[in-house]
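Private note to self, pasted from the team thread so I don't lose it. Backbone tokens:
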């Protein structure tokens, strides 16, 4: 039997020109496209070739012209500073136009890069939209990353200007951004360093400015004139977003202008079931893809009111802060990571604080960024009494690969599944030989090309790595690097990563990057880092180090040193707090460390001794080591 979802999905796969061409009619274009999908240079597909558009115009100016100028566009809610500030569409447009003028005054032009290293304040959103207004390519770096992580991104993007703030605020501490920025610039290559830095001085802490390079936000705004939107090719880059905390060369995911506007605006009604005028809240950070797609861009494309929240799910001041924000601002739909709800559940298991607030306008909760465990799903469903929707996507994809598209046709929820592929996403499961597997069999989750609008067209200045990372292993498909299966009802189940990226509270981090840092320690001969299950954060990294022969130092000192090294080089976001010294690591006869087996021991899961293992007795040693740090339980 047909339903609206089947009709939409089939059209999107069989006639993408018709499907996405119709969606694009809902956006503002300076010049209509010549072709919806250009497949003349496979596998480098391009959307809306020949079209001219401006992302900022679609986010702000269009709504002002259409009579929404007095509607709230952005609500800044900051329990850590006890601040609530609202911007109407007209006010936000004026601020963005002025900062676009300020960037232009510093010589920033179409195609130049601007790096943003910002906390969750309105100026971060203003700076992103200002870049989009003049065609500068923004690259937002999460404020929790350490100086050398920022330096690698400076080297890759070569920004003309960096925009930052004096500090960020956590639950009980202030994080000095400016010294980290200064150190990152020192660590970066001389030919990659910015000409200017624009610094927003927060009231609670002023930063020391470097004469000749650093400019005060308020000063440049006072001297600027508003700048109009610049028409851009649909295929021009909008932003670069770097994936995972690698210590080597980062992967800069590129997002284009045209496909991004079309797909994200379409997703607001069709996936999240929100309309213009509704209040939408993505509780994330602008340093991550969720912050780009669903704090800043998609809600504004749709004419919604979006919430920029500077706080935590617990501790600012308590586990009821989410309910307070939803109630006070009349939120219809919320999107966050499961780890936030695990934290709330741990602090307030009976949801007593929920009873203090009126959530009658709250219609749906969407969760993504990591696996949604059944316990958290059911707790949220029972506490809220509304649909709780798991959906699956990645930095690279920009929006949901799979979702229960409640704006088209809601399906029954199956725990463990983000439901079905969203229109445009031809998800399949294949074996290592790129052959399809039977329904219910686990294999590599892949997406048949072309990817829909809004997904990455390539990596920044690195087409070769784009092909190697995503397209070469399974020709004709995009490799998600996730494993899973599709059941007989068409529901997709995402089981695990197929590479070394782990998911810490919704943040994708590379265990390989952490291993590089551990291996740098002078006393460490070899090491392994893997993600083990954590009730609060989904996964946390645990390190195992084998020491060089003859090292007779206190093991606890070495462990603390490697933990501090990871904290310094990747940042607190890595949540790397546990490591242990072991005599040896379990390996195959060819020398490959059996990380998957160690992980199963740590997570108390049954495992088979691999046929290729060099010495099976080592697994007992690993069990003892894991029991010693509080993970594996003693086996009978």
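Design output:
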């Amino acid at each position: 039997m047909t339903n609206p979802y089947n009709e939409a999905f089939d059209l999107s796969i069989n006639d993408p020109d018709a499907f996405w061409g119709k969606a694009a009619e809902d956006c503002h274009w300076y010049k209509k496209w010549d072709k919806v999908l250009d497949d003349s240079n496979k596998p480098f597909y391009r959307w809306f070739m020949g079209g001219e558009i401006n992302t900022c115009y679609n986010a702000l100016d269009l709504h002002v012209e259409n009579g929404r100028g007095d509607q709230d566009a952005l609500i800044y809610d900051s329990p850590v500073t006890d601040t609530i500030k609202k911007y109407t569409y007209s006010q936000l447009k004026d601020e963005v136009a002025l900062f676009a003028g300020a960037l232009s005054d510093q010589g920033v032009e179409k195609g130049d890069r601007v790096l943003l290293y910002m906390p969750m304040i309105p100026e971060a959103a203003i700076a992103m939209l200002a870049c989009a207004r003049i065609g500068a390519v923004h690259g937002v770096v999460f404020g929790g990353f350490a100086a050398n992580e920022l330096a690698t991104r400076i080297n890759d993007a070569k920004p003309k200007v960096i925009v930052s703030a004096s500090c960020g605020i956590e639950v009980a501490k202030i994080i000095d951004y400016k010294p980290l920025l200064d150190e990152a610039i020192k660590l970066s290559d001389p030919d990659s360093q910015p000409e200017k830095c624009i610094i927003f001085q927060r009231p609670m802490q002023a930063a020391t400015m470097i004469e000749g390079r650093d400019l005060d936000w308020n000063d440049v705004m006072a001297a600027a004139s508003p700048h109009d939107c610049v028409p851009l090719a649909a295929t021009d880059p909008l932003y670069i977003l770097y994936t995972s905390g690698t210590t080597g060369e980062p992967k800069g995911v590129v997002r284009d202008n045209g496909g991004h506007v079309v797909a994200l605006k379409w997703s607001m009604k069709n996936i999240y079931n929100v309309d213009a005028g509704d209040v939408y809240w993505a509780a994330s950070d602008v340093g991550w893809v969720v912050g780009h797609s669903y704090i800043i861009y998609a809600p504004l494309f749709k004419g919604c009111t979006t919430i920029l929240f500077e706080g935590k799910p617990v501790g600012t001041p308590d586990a009821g802060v989410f309910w307070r924000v939803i109630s006070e601002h009349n939120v219809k739909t919320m999107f966050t990571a499961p780890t936030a709800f695990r934290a709330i559940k741990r602090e307030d298991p009976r949801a007593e604080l929920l009873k203090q607030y009126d959530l009658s306008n709250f219609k749906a909760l969407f969760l993504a960024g990591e696996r949604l465990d059944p316990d958290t799903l059911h707790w949220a469903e029972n506490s809220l009494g509304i649909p709780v929707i798991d959906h699956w996507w990645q930095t690279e994809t920009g929006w949901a690969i799979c979702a229960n598209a409640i704006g088209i046709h809601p399906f029954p929820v199956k725990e463990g599944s983000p439901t079905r592929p969203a229109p445009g996403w031809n998800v399949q499961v294949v074996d290592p030989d790129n052959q399809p597997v039977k329904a219910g069999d686990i294999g590599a989750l892949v997406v048949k090309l072309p990817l829909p609008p809004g997904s990455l067209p390539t990596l920044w200045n690195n087409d070769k790595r784009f092909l190697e990372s995503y397209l070469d292993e399974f020709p004709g498909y995009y490799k998600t690097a996730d494993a899973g299966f599709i059941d007989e009802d068409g529901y997709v189940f995402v089981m695990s990563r197929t590479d070394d990226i782990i998911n810490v509270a919704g943040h994708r981090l590379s265990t390989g990057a952490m291993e590089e840092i551990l291996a740098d320690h002078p006393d460490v001969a070899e090491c392994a880092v893997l993600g083990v299950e954590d009730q609060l954060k989904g996964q946390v990294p645990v390190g195992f180090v084998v020491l060089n022969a003859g090292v007779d130092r206190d093991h606890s000192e070495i462990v603390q040193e490697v933990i501090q090294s990871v904290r310094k080089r990747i940042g607190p976001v890595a949540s790397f707090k546990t490591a242990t010294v072991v005599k040896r690591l379990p390996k195959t006869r060819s020398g490959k460390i059996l990380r998957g087996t160690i992980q199963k021991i740590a997570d108390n899961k049954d495992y088979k001794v691999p046929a290729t293992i060099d010495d099976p007795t080592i697994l007992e040693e690993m069990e003892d080591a894991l029991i010693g740090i509080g993970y594996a339980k003693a086996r009978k």
